[in-house]
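USER: Note each token:
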Amino acid sequence: MAALDPRQHYGEAFERFERGLGTTAPGWLKALRKDAFARFAELGFPTTKQEEWRYTSVAPIAERAFELASDGAAALSREDVEHSSFPVYACSLFVFVNGRFAPRLSAPRALSGSPCVESLARVLEQAPERVELQLAKLAPYEASPFVALNTAFLHDGALVQVPEGVAVEAPIHVVYLSLPDHSPRVSHPRTLVRIGRRARATVIEDYVSLGAGPCFTNAVSEVRLESGAELDLVRLQREGDPNFHVSSVHMEQTRDSRFTAHDLSLGGALVRKDVSALLAGEGAECTLDGLYIASRQELVDNHTLIDHARPHGTSRELYKGILSGTARGIFHGKIVVREGSRKTDAYQKNKNLLLSRDAEVDSKPQLEIAADDVKCSHGSTIGQLDEASLFYLQARGIDTPSARRLLMRAFASEVTSRIRQEPLRDEIEEILLERLAGEETGQL
């Protein structure tokens, strides 16, 4: 069998995609999609010869003939969704199946202040001018083939807008469900979030796969916080083997805004996440917390960038990894302090726990400072379960597997405990416990 040519394969898929959309799309959107695909065709999939992908081979994605996933909502019930997502009572729930909005499976409960959560496809069909100035403005596709591919096949996703001065107390829960088929399938969900001046909200992006794969999720999120806005963004990826997940978040903050991200990766054959935060306003605060768990032959790669572009910015970053089997973890975090960004206060830390001899982590925290009068630090640690603590628990009658899980949970809780909404935190910790219970701990 001849080797797959990704440019030809996705080129043919793009032609079918365009024909399926018809001629109703506005000219600017057609041009955007065409330009994005042309850029993907020019770049091709990245290789390990490129520094940003040095430790991560995407050959398992590039060599598969992924086809666009069809709308599979009809095959699902509300019980299927509730079984795989958080309890609906706590959230306003918006479900997307294979990247397409599924109203029948959603539960858009009333939210205080009438925040607007809509299907992006519907907006692009009925009033595309509403998103013309937002779409693809924070997530440039020129440098990333995956962002380019998402933009080329841009069709649906969640549009979240919180009006000025509105405080939304209940989380806004967006579930992206992948439904495997008999052949490899790909979806390209897009999320646009805009938090108005002095507004506040919590948004959950939840990526789940039902059944055996392989599925490929290629997601892009664009987030903008206006002056004085606050956003907690919880991103939970739990698609599992043998699925692939590549996603990027591009966020821009203006003056005195507060952004907190909790990024949890709990399984997948290959997981790559990019988070880019631009502190474009004076006094902006950014917190990036991440937790990744991998076992067997899984690979999880986290790349983060915090760009301090204005004075008096504050950032805090903590990523922690738990790896077993022959799993591979990568953390590449960079903090940039631009010239003139005085009084910047930035801290970055990456901690990793290896549970087997064959698990491996590559950690590369970085600082790039071009300003005076700043306070910046970073660090990285890689270690094993503490034998003294393990012995202490065993001496008090706790069996070895339970003792190991307790220590792993304590290690992870430094990240999960920072989620402010207690019901949400409890549900995530339950999911985490299930994942740790099935962890291949091995013998050190």
Observations:
- The radius of gyration is 21 Å.
